[in-house]
Amino acid sequence: MSRDQRNEGVYNYASAEPVVGQPLHKSVQSAVDKMKSETYANAFGTAQPVNGDALFQGLSDIFNQQEIPLGLMNKLLNLDGYSMHFKIDDSGSMTSSSSLPRKNASSYMQGVGDTRKEMLTRWEEAENRLHILFDLISFVPTGSITLSFLNRREMIILDRAQKSPEEFAAYAHDKIKATFGTRPAGETPIHRNMQNMLQQALPNQNARTTMHYLLTDGEPSGGEEEIRNIKELLKKRNAQCNPFTFLCCSNDPGHTDWMHELEEVAPSVAALRNFLAEKDEVLKDQGSAFRYTYGFWLLANIAAAVNPNDLDAMDQHAPLTKLTIENLYGREITEAEYRRYFDKHPNANRVFGPDYELFLTCEIARQIPSVAYFDRVLAQLLENDIDKGEDDTDETEERAAEQSVIDARRRGEFSRVKAGMFGNTQQSSYVPIPNYDSAAANTGDQSVACACTMV
Fold it and tell me: Can you give the pTM of this predicted structure?
């Protein structure tokens, strides 16, 4: 029994069976039905059909081991048919020490590197993360999977034809281990490599989305100018067909904050630190009543970029709605449970308190006018930061966006906008928000007022 099963006492994540006689939550039932379907089993293309029950049990075992709520299983399964491209930073700085203790690494890293050192290198952390992710990816009949590098010209295509999930996992782990045997060296030409990734994905666009991942430890070689170019590249790409995830292999904020600003600015972009750093960030934003496990972090590594309203919203400023939390955990929660979460959320009552009833009924937080407004203001402020080459944390911008919400509410502006009209609002969508310029007044940046009124 996992820590969360003991703490929750309501839901058994591993077996997908309700502990107290409850029916399966719809988010879990849809995953069970899909994984056990003949269509899903046949998508692996093996000579002998994959057994759906065995497939589900194998993945459930991993979910239990990694403390992943079964409500997240459909997030993983929905990547079936997608191509994946993992770009790996092989610059010289990747030989530096990471913040991941060797003792906390997966079994795949036993005997790898200098075992006398307490911490993994950033290069070893990247390898460790890939091994863990591929344990999950092997259960999904994806399209082609590519491994490539910032400097080395080598490109590895992982062929999963005629391979069962177990066979593909073993094959992928061997390939990963072999390719990381080469010591990293060189610069960090991120922008050029991202351009190439997007260009290579074009032939696949008639099929399905290509999921892009960059495992890196810091700033690109071109500095602030290159970061601005990366921002423009991400904003102008076909975001729906090219979700992008930055997987940070360093906890140095001075090297990685730019990635986290980009996820607020460009659509279908996610950025994740290692687990402990990401957990600190999530609990700072969501409060102590939110249960953030290692499993949440794993699934976010893979699928946050295509789930902006839940997986990628856990480290955002606004509370999650009751329905969002239920879908994530894979069970219904009582209003008393949700009230406890809301009251312990550091920003809920202070900024979004008057919208409590909307958080109970709306499917996602971005359907709530005040949340949509906050997100738009914050995105513009952070984009201005990037354009000016400012390296401060985003706390100043968050406080300014908060004050804009408070001031707009005081003026009665949100009563003019009907909640829920936004549908599945993405970060890139223009949404109806108050014609109000308090963000500009609070920051001295007059470009915000114009940006906040675009519809």
Answer: 0.86
